[in-house]
C-alpha cells in the first residue's frame, strides 16, 4: 500500500474507493488544530511529527488512488514505516468505503449523490488515538473556536511543535492545564487520560480497535476519563469504526431536522429510524448529513 516515489517521497494508496484529500481535510475541524496546517492554495496538508529522535515537517498531497508524503529529507526504512502508518491513520486510507454511498442512498438519494460527487467518506484523524482523545475532550460542551484555542495551548506544551506526549500534560498538571490551556473542568479528565496513556493503556486500546466488538470498544472508550458515549462514538469513527452506534448531539439534531423532518426537532428514535436503512453505514450517513450542512455554510 506504499512505495518510494522519487527521492524522499512516499506514495500511499487508499483501500477500496478513491479519495479526495481536501474532502478528508474538511471532514471536521481537526485541520484547524496543531500540529495540522492546511494550505488551501497549494492543496497541501502539513503536519509536524516526531519520528524517533527527530521532529519532521511532512507535506501531504494528492488524492484519488494515490497520496504522496513529502518529508524534508531522506528517511530510514524504520522512519518510513512510522510515517506511512501514521499518515494512513490520519487519512483513513485503510478504511474500505465500498458500499457506503449505495447504503446512504437508501436513506437519502440526494445526499448520497452529493457525497459521491465531492468524494466524501473518510475522516481526518490524529496520528494516534491519544491525540483524538485529547482533542475530543477539548471539543466537548464548548464552541469550536474555544476548543481550537484549548488544543492550540495544549500543543504549546511540546517545544518541538509536535503533538504533546502524555507526560507533557502530566508535567503541567491540573493547575497548569487550567491556567495555561484554559481547559476549565476538563483539567482532571485530561490528567486522568494522560495517566492512562503514559501507562500504555490508550496505545493498547488503539492496537485492539480492529478486533473488538462494538460493545467492548465502547466500554473501553468510555472508561477513559472525560469520554462519554457520544464522544466515544466520534473517537471510534476516527479510528474507522462506524458500527458503534449513532453519535447524536447538538449538531446532529438540527441537521436532521432541516434535512429530513421539515425543520421539526426529531427525537433520537426518529433519527435512528430514518438512517436505519443504511445498515452498517447508518452512523456514517448521519455523520455526513450533519457535516455537509456545516460545510455548506462556510
Describe the structure.
The chain is an alpha+beta fold and 298 residues long. It has three domains: 2-94, TATA-Binding Protein (2-Layer Sandwich); 97-121 and 240-298; 129-225, Endonuclease III, domain 1. 48% of the residues lie in helices and 12% in strands. It is built from 14 helices and seven strands. The chain has helices at 21-25, 77-90, 100-105, 109-118, 129-138, 144-155, 166-181, 187-198, 201-208, 214-222, 229-238, 252-260, 268-275, 282-295; strands spanning 2-4, 10-12, 19-20, 36-39, 44-51, 54-64, 66-70. Strands 1, 2, 3, 4, 5, 6 and 7 form a seven-stranded antiparallel sheet that branches. Helix 5 (129-138) packs across helix 11, helix 6 (144-155) crosses helix 7 (166-181) and helix 12 (252-260) crosses helix 14. The longest helix is centred in the middle third of the chain and has 16 residues, at 166-181. The radius of gyration is 19 Å and the shape is globular. The model has no long low-confidence stretch (mean pLDDT 93).
Give the structure's gist in a few sentences:
The protein is of the alpha+beta class and 298 residues long. It has helices spanning 21-25, 77-90, 100-105, 109-118, 129-138, 144-155, 166-181, 187-198, 201-208, 214-222, 229-238, 252-260, 268-275, 282-295, and strands spanning 2-4, 10-12, 19-20, 36-39, 44-51, 54-64, 66-70. The chain has three domains: 2-94, DNA-3-methyladenine glycosylase AlkA, N-terminal domain (TATA-Binding Protein); 97-121 and 240-298; 129-225, Hypothetical protein, domain 2 (Endonuclease III, domain 1, Orthogonal Bundle), CATH 1.10.340.
